[in-house]
Amino acid sequence: MNILKTDFKKNKYIYLMVSIVVAWYIIFAYIPMYGVIIAFKDFNPGRGILNSPWVGLDHFKSFFIDPNFRRVITNTFLINIYDILWGFPAPIILALLMNEVRSKIFKKTVQNLTYLPFFISIVVVCGIIIDFTSTNGLINQLLSHFGVEKTNLLANKDLFRTIFVGSGIWQGIGWGSIIYLAALTNIDQQQYEAATIDGAGRWKQLLHITLPGISSTIMILLILRMGSIMSVGFEKIILLYNPLTYDTADVISSYVYRRGLLNADYSYSTAIGLLNSLINFFFLIGANWLSKKYSENSLW
């Protein structure tokens, strides 16, 4: 206890800063968890949470037999898989390429151009996508020169996932590369000097020095990404999709938005959200266990 008091007096300002963060999480992350119990109730805003009738697992059972169950689960999973396959390596590749650039002016220019889309509002980004993919949009104008017929690309359900994931890569590739560029600076430069003396070219240095040097960072971020494999933000989805593309565009979050907010079915949407969080949690645990077993990198 004396040690704790001494440490508190010595670092009281640090404790003060930490207490603000802890308070934020308690107020906005932990206390709201109390509302999760409406997933097991037939929630009525007039009666309140405690006085609403208990229905147990009825909402979960209803979701499993819901005609939309297979569609939203499949779409959510596939969009995340495509994003992991194409979107996760993209910032790594950009960081590796930037690390090989010797011109500081060119490097700064590319960094600024790739960082900029991240700070653009998602509403503005979706507006740009809609304009570019419209029948008379820029993309169709370019494709028409190669004999491709002009069509509304966003109305094509087979192209929705490609447009969604591709635009996400464009918006986040620069920002995502920052942490990898930071990790690259921690690699001992003497290793490169020794490799050069031994006759290793840039490609071999990349394979045997650079990639192993940032492998722990890559694995930690991959584990965290696996923890959200069943999560897709509803904002971009509802701004881009339409009834014609529901078959490939409707995901769990957009379905929860329609059922919970538009149809005021709060208990049912909460049950779906809780199930989604549990699936993500188990994916996170599994990814961490596999990483710890095979690569010795883990979150705990």
From TrEMBL:
Keywords tagged on the record: Cell membrane, Membrane, Transmembrane, Transmembrane helix, Transport
Domain ABC transmembrane type-1 residues, every copy: 73-287
A Pfam family per the record: BPD_transp_1
Entry's localization field: Cell membrane
CDD domains from the UniProt entry: TM_PBP2
Cell inner membrane among keywords: no
Positions of transmembrane segments: 12-40, 77-97, 118-139, 159-185, 206-224, 266-290
Membrane topology: Multi-pass membrane protein
GO biological process: transmembrane transport
Name of the protein in question: ABC transporter permease subunit
Lineage of source species: Bacteria, Bacillati, Bacillota, Bacilli, Bacillales
